[in-house]
Specification:
Length: 155
């Protein structure tokens, strides 16, 4: 638990990693998190956050890991979570109360290695754009646990 900062060439101190997992935090996720533009890791897992996932988190273009597992987040997965496609390697939204379908924009996350959406209330089909991420010759399917989502149908 904690945070990591870096100092830019101009002397500006920027938060690059924020790990507040297992901190018994409650409340709602704020768009103020999107002001931490240098974040590469945001881990708010194993807390008691509720409400929806703010779409503004999609503006965190340096983000490599977004871990929000084991909270009480509800509503749909915002398509904006996949706005910045280049860096995100881990997207873990498991063990929440998320509903609806998986946005096809998740398939644009070209660096994605781990996608865990299990233990939610998701329905529908797995978008073909996500299946396309499994077509890598060096790793036949690098997506983790996407098929253990009850209510979803693989294409």
């Amino acid at each position: 638990m904690g945070f990591l900062c870096e100092t830019t060439a101009s002397g500006e101190v920027r938060v690059t990693q924020l790990d507040l997992s297992n901190s018994s935090l409650t409340g709602y996720l704020s768009c103020d998190l999107a002001r931490l533009t240098a974040l590469t890791v945001l881990d708010l897992s194993y807390n008691e956050f509720q409400g929806s996932i703010p779409g503004c988190l999609g503006s965190l273009c340096q983000l490599e890991e977004l871990v929000l597992e084991h909270n009480s987040l509800e509503g749909s997965i915002p398509s904006g979570v996949a706005n910045c496609t280049g860096n995100l390697q881990i997207l873990d939204l498991s063990d929440n109360l998320l509903s609806g379908s998986i946005p096809s924009s998740v398939g644009n996350l070209s660096s994605l290695e781990t996608l865990d959406l299990g233990t939610n209330k998701l329905t529908g089909t797995i978008p073909s754009s996500i299946n396309a991420l499994c077509q890598c010759p060096w790793d036949p399917c690098r997506l983790f646990l996407v098929t253990r989502i009850p209510g979803l149908v693989a294409l």
